[in-house]
Amino acid sequence: MKQLLDKHINLVVDMHGCPNRCMHCWLGDVPNNIIPDAMDLKIVNRFKEYFKDVTFYSWLREPDFFQDYKNRWTLDNELSNTKPNRFELASFYKIVRDINYVKFLKEVGTKKVQLTFFGMEELTDKYIGRKGAFNELLLATTILQENDISPRWQIFINEENKDEILDVIHIAKNNNVKDIFIHAGSCDGNNRKLYDIRINKEDIYKELIPYYLDYNELLTEKECYKLLENDNSYFIPDSSELVINITSDYNMYFNYTNPSKKWRIGNVFDDNFEEIVNRIINKDIEAIRIAKSIPIKDLVKKYGNYNSNRVFFLDDYKMYLLNNELNNN
């Protein structure tokens, strides 16, 4: 470990938490503790001892959830060898409360912002975990459009809200929103708790199919089961980029799935950091070791439901099966 590793690593740090407690969140209900601003440099420096190229993000859930979000973005850039990206994410909480925030988004080159709905007002407020969230999303849509930023509406569908999704699409069109997509989400984190009301494929109204994300790749659980029941391979999650999620207790996780005990890499400050780096590079954590020990065909026979028409994308289903094993192992 004497030489710097010629690798790029993204550090995604939950410094100030999130104003929402979304029932779909793949990260689950991680604590909303605040990491002091002075800790950012300490975190980055630990990694810069081992990695040549580090990118630092000060948010894991709600972007820019800081009082001084403008300065925070400047600091993120200063801490990073390769500059962080804005993606299509922003804080709708701040869009409707701070007139200067949307101006900041324009300054940093934001062209599009994703907003998430779960049906009409009552259900969207319920799933986001805040009364008034639905109306804030509508107001945020207008504010973005007035500032030449395109709103992109993401709509989660399940058996509870399916009858309201067409209404949401009508509202989107009435608000001149052209970028709309529907999906059930992964079956991970909090969304895994909603397995029982996961949408059945036959219950997706045909009028919704043109808006459904990658509908041609969508499978029922029964179809997934059939594809995997004789699969002798192992499901080893991986990513083209090295991304480490850091929660407010300074515990580290790969960004493949929800932060849970068996996915924990270690603690930024409490554990030997050379050992931490070895675990990151070699993916030597308990969850991956278990994943390498049980073939997919065994996972689906243990945890799959052959009689289910709930919808999945195949890799999301594999992760669902693996996390069942991790929770029971």
From TrEMBL:
GO terms for molecular function: catalytic activity; iron-sulfur cluster binding; metal ion binding. Keywords: Iron, Iron-sulfur, Metal-binding, S-adenosyl-L-methionine. The keyword Ion transport does not apply. InterPro entries: Aldolase_TIM, Radical_SAM_PqqE_MftC-like, rSAM, rSAM_sf. This is MoaA/NifB/PqqE/SkfB family radical SAM enzyme. The lineage of its organism: Bacteria, Bacillati, Mycoplasmatota, Mollicutes, Anaeroplasmatales.
